[in-house]
Amino acid sequence: MRPRLWALLVSGALMALPAAAEVSDTTLLVAVRALSFLQHPLQGEVVVGIVYQPVNAQSLLEAKHLDALMEDGFRAGQLVLRSRLITLDELASSNVGLYFLTSKLGDEAAPLAQLERSRKIPCVTTDIDQVRDGNCAMGVRALPRVEILVNRAAAAASGMTFSEAFRVMITEL
Amino acid sequence: MTSTPKHYRLILVPLVLCAQHAAHAQSIDYGALERLFQEPVTTSVTGSPQRVADVPADMQIITADDIRRSGAYDLPGVLQSAAGVDFEQWTDDQAEISVRGYDQPYSQRVLVLINGRQVYADDYSFTPWSSLPVELGAIRQIEIVKGPASALFGFNAVAGVINIVTYNPLYDQVDSASVSAGSQQLAQASAIATFPLGQAGGVRISGGARSNQDFPAPVAAIPDVVGHINQRRDANLDAALRLNDSTSLRIEASTTRVEQNQVNPVYQYDFESFDTNSVKAQLSSDSDYGLLQLTAYTNSMDQSAGAGLAGQPLTFSDRLDVAQAEDVFKLGAGNTFRLALEYRHDSDSTSPITGAEVFYDVISASGMWNWQLSPLLTLTNALRLDDLALGRDGYTPPGYPLTNHDWDRQLHVPSFNSGLVWRLDDSDTLRLMAARGTLLPNLVELGALLYQTPGFGVTGTPTLAPTRVDSYELDWDRSVPQLQGELRTAVFYQFTDGMTVLDGGVLAGPAGFYITPETIGDSGALGASVTLDGRLSEHWRWGAYLRYERVRQSFSAAAAGGVGAVDPQDETPSRVSKFNFGWNQGRWESDAYLQYQSRIAGLAYNGLVAGTLIPVPAYVSFEARIAYQFNAHLGVALSGQNLLHQQQMQTSGEPVQRRWLVTITGTL
User: How far apart are CA B215 and CA B103, in angstroms?
Assistant: First the structure.
């Protein structure tokens, strides 16, 4: 199957659900648990860069919601996530351990892909289009059923290598 | 390793396992995957880790929570209320389990495993449930696969597979102790202790003991079983060691000793003993080459039957040695493969005439391809080839019409599983499956049974052909958010080609004639089932299961009417229903289970063979449990089985008694 067709099928299937699923603490928990299957998982206290566009209402709303979820540190096992809001303009100067890309940013998020590659920083989003376009390596959804989508090329470029037990249970493109 | 060809690298894999440092997990951490996907995870359908909703099979998982809330004190009791499972209580400690009908004493068609290790006994092709070396509190989940699964597990997984998965001491800390007392003079104790070894791994030790008496007063029809005390003892060691970041070694060892009243394959009551021992080692690695696993285990079982044959006790010593190698890996974005090789050697001593053994060696190769055509559509194909070499060594009595060379036979047996899983949307899933499984003649039928008197004998035979089961199934699952539940439906057809009986043939020899096993004919089963479960609120849960099944058989005249102790057409109930209700709040927990089975005609022993059909009326049985948790560490439960009647006819054997028990459980 040609890559483009595959990508269309993937997006068609996963986009049957809202393109940008609502971010909840469950979504965040799914993302953190998925990242624990990295061959070199995140550990300790990690600063999460919430990448958003202030003039985009949905992006802004999601960013604020995520920031609130991590206000006192979001704990999952040994990991503690602390948030930092980062506008697209501030991306280049950001210093974080994980990107959480808010939804509905379209092509504006393209510079993030460059940063992921150069700095080897993982990226998570609920916006499946961004995973399809390679701007973010991993997409997650919590409801009504947990779904995880990984862009293999983007993941490899950003140094994200997952255990095989995890890979055989998720959708890759 | 940049230029080494892939196939050379695969060959080198076992050698470099201990040098792997890259991957995070070593063996399947069921708990972590379940927490991530928020549903049970299994490897029992394709060999690859899968979410239960994605497997190409009709599958049910009984969780540790379900086991506790069943109120049962043994494994068949836990399985009794499971959808699709047939349950027959023959004595207090002998219950027979099958999937989708064909249940009978020494039920043959379901392969049972503990952590992938076969605990199904090859001497009579059955599962001696009491001798399984596992405590209920050590079980993470019981995985029930309905339909043939021979392409993954090999012979005898023709109607289904039950894989009992225990907690892994590498990841799970389980510490508990319980004592139970109840009717039928039941006394039971169980203990489980886990000893973490820091980053190195963990060790779990578990064991239990049980005694009861199911026939304290004389029963005229079955004098052989009166006055016996059923007893069970078991001990289990489970050690998991982390060799490095990617590789772990798990070693399991177990022993059991069981004495209990039984109904044997010809429906004769008997007092039997089972001594089992096993040792298993499994090396697992989540490596750059995939999920690699090397497994070796050895099982032994000595089974003695007091009534035996013509007054001579039967004692069989079954030995099974297995070595397996497998690799699960993903190529590209949507293709998961499993490649496996297996060798097994199985042998059994002859009885009641001793001095010989019947054995076979099996070399198997299997492959599975899970092709994710799209995120919503997956096609899985699995194929297995078993190459079996049969043999016999040792003594042949004078006048015996067979020589050891007659056992020098080869069988080449293919089996397959194909399944298409189509997730129509977030609510609906369709599954279409086709499979072929093979039931191998057991070692008793293949010659371990050997009895001879002047002019008459009984012997197994090396020429018996395997039984082939073809299965076709269409399933539809739909989530029902209004009920916080799920609807699961299945329509299935199974055709069994070449069913055998223990004593249907005749072989003439110089010393007289011998009764032998015989192939008697075919059978087909057409059925449909509906399962609906859900929650009424945070505190209430419920479930319902309905099945209609029609079994037909075409047997030779000599085996008609169950003369050979096989009669699924009469013995399989056409309608089975199961209902359960559960409630929990605060410190209280309560559950009730109701089961209905339509009338059947069951076989009974008539002094020579199982040739008498007895009407068994339709019945309803009721089980219940209520429990109170004093604090985080101590709880008490009162549970009962067959509560509607003091005694009730559920099989063609003795009536099933009402039972109750009190259990006190302490946990750390």
Answer: 23
- Give the closest residue to A136 by CA, choosing from A161, A115, A167: A115
Q: At what angle do helices B30-37 and A25-35 cross, to 10 degrees?
A: 150
Instruction: Give CA–CA dist B238/B194, Å, rounded.
Output: 9
- Please count the structural domains in chain A: 1
Q: Considering only CA atoms, which of B147, B161, B59, B108 is closest in space to residue B417?
A: B147
Compute the distance between CA of residue A81 and CA of residue A75 in angstroms, rounded to an integer: 6
- List the Cα angle B77/B79/B80 in 5-degree steps: 65
The CATH number of the domain where A50 resides is what? 3.40.50
Length of chain B: 668
Q: Among all chains, which residue has been given the structure tokens 């190459």?
A: B387
**Section A57-64 average pLDDT:** 92
**What is the distance between the alpha carbons of residues A144 and B427, in angstroms, rounded to a whole number?**
9
Q: Is the predicted pLDDT of residue B391 greater than 80, yes or no?
A: yes
Q: Considering only CB atoms, which chain B residues are within 8 Å of A164?
A: 23, 286-287, 290-291, 328-330
Stated as kind and residue range, the H or E segment containing B570 is helix B568-571
End-to-end CA distance of chain B: 48
What pLDDT digit, counting tens, does each position of B323-358 carry? 999 999 999 999 999 999 999 999 999 999 999 999
Cα–Cα dist A16/A33, whole Å: 24
Mean pLDDT of the B121-149 span: 96
- Looking up tokens 């991993």 gives A138
Tell me the domains of chain B and their CATH numbers.
23-174+253-618 (2.40.170.20)
Nearest to A125 by CA among A107, A99, A143: A99
CB-based contact B30:A122 (threshold 8 Å): no
ipTM above 0.90, yes or no: no
Choose the closest CB to B50 out of A16, A41, A169: A169
Chain A interface with B: residues with Cβ < 8 Å: 1, 6, 9-10, 13-14, 16-17, 30, 33-34, 36-41, 144-146, 149, 152, 161, 163-169, 171-173
Give CA torsion, residues B511, B513, B514, B516, to 10 deg.
140
Strands B247-263 and B269-287: antiparallel
CB-CB contact of B130 with B260 (8 Å): yes
Range of the domain at A155: 3-172
pTM: 0.92
